[in-house]
Design goal:
alpha+beta, 415 residues
Length: 415
């Protein structure tokens, strides 16, 4: 396109094509024709127009210059628009790539969610099975606990026996056997005694059982050989069985006791606000001139925490004077205290033996029927029956009947 002439009428441009035809276009229409964003800029000639130099009669030079400036501005705007278009296309490509990336991530997240859901269902099934197994084991354990409770109830008497061990040991049969010869230079330095100790043998007697011990072992063996016996209890007859029984475990040992002739044990030492060395000195001084004998002290071991002391005399036999005395005066700072004094002893066991056996003089009765009578009355009726020679019995030494629960009966070694 070539400009032939241009007139400025209200922002319009007069254009003439190559055939000489005139066209009027506004500035915005001219810009629209020129701003084809999908194609590159073309000269006006390529669009069918030619630009002609206006004559002096068409327009003034000022108007012409103004139009050129305006055209230049539109060209700059067009270039800026092209740059914006290019930037937008770059942004679009970047956005498309980001969109694809986000789509891939979304797909991965959906797959992960599905996998987690499957794992959750699988884990839930596993946990339900484990819970079912645990519930079964819990029920089994509850049954075992109930059984253990029943067994515990049966063993209550045995537990009570454990609680009586110390008392039974204290009631053991203790016999003095002999004095040991001293091997020291001085015959009175130590006293050595030997005792024979034998425990009683425990036997558990259960509910509805009776134990009888006869003076003559032949009577017990005869009743055991007969086996079945008929008793009259509370105007009713009941059949019982007489049988032998095995005793529990017993112990016997020798107890060797050595009483020192040089040492004494002191207890109940008062708490004094003086150093321990001073307390030792005062104890040494006190027993050096003791009215009970005493003498020169070789050593003093004092324990403040337990308030005890061990006094060792230099002369053998010096401690013998304290055998008959349990209290000794102790003077500190003008005040008198009472000390507990005892001979220093050493005790040890030898020849420890375990033994068990069968009591030939005793029988065990089982199958005694329950009656309304009290335990003592039933025991008397059983004893009367087995004392009669017509029933094969004889004189009894002792009898024990248990109607409820269980109890322990003790036997000595020669029973």
């Amino acid at each position: 396109m070539v400009y032939r002439s241009m007139h400025h009428f209200s922002d319009s441009v007069n254009l003439e094509d190559k055939q000489g035809r005139h066209h009027y276009a506004s500035a915005s229409q001219l810009l629209k024709v020129s701003m084809d964003l999908s194609s590159s800029l073309l000269p006006l000639e390529d669009n069918g127009f030619c630009m002609t130099t206006p004559g002096p009669s068409d327009t003034s030079k000022d108007e012409m210059e103004s139009l050129k400036q305006e055209l230049q501005k539109w060209k700059e705007r067009l270039e800026n628009a092209e740059k914006v278009k290019a930037d937008l296309q770059v942004c679009k490509l970047s956005a498309d790539k980001e969109y694809v990336k986000l789509q891939d991530e979304l797909t991965s997240l959906k797959e992960l969610e599905e996998n987690l859901h499957k794992e959750s269902i699988k884990s839930k099934d596993i946990h339900e099975k484990e819970l079912c197994v645990l519930n079964q084991e819990n029920s089994k354990l509850k049954k075992e606990i109930e059984k253990l409770k029943e067994d515990l109830a049966e063993c209550n008497s045995e537990l009570s026996w454990d609680g009586k061990i110390e008392k039974k040991v204290a009631d053991m049969k203790v016999e003095f056997t002999h004095m040991e010869d001293t091997k020291d230079d001085f015959s009175d330095i130590n006293t050595r005694c030997v005792f024979s100790v034998t425990s009683k043998i425990p036997f558990k007697l259960n509910q509805n059982q009776a134990l009888l011990t006869f003076e003559d072992a032949e009577v017990a063996q005869r009743l055991i050989k007969t086996g079945k016996h008929t008793l009259n209890l509370d105007r009713k007859t009941t059949d019982v069985k007489a049988m032998p029984f095995a005793l529990g475990m017993g112990i016997k040992f020798e107890l060797h006791i050595t009483i020192s002739g040089k040492k004494i044990d002191v207890s109940e030492v008062p708490e004094l606000s003086i150093p321990d060395d001073w307390v030792r000195d005062k104890l040494e001084l006190n027993f050096y001139k003791s009215e009970h004998g005493g003498g020169e002290v070789e050593n003093v071991k004092y324990d403040k925490k337990s308030r005890t002391a061990v006094i060792t005399f230099l002369k053998p036999g010096a401690a013998n004077g304290f055998v008959r005395s349990t209290k000794c005066p102790f003077f500190v700072n003008g005040r008198q205290y009472r000390l507990h004094v005892s001979p220093s002893t050493n005790v040890h066991m030898e020849k420890l033996q375990l033994y068990s056996g069968i009591s030939k003089n005793s029988i065990l009765l089982k199958g005694i029927a329950e009656t309304e009578d009290d335990e003592e009355s039933v025991q008397d009726m059983i004893e009367i029956h087995f004392q009669k020679p017509s029933n094969g019995g004889g004189e009894t030494e002792r009898i024990k009947y248990v109607s409820k629960g269980a109890t322990w009966v003790c036997f000595e070694e020669d029973a």
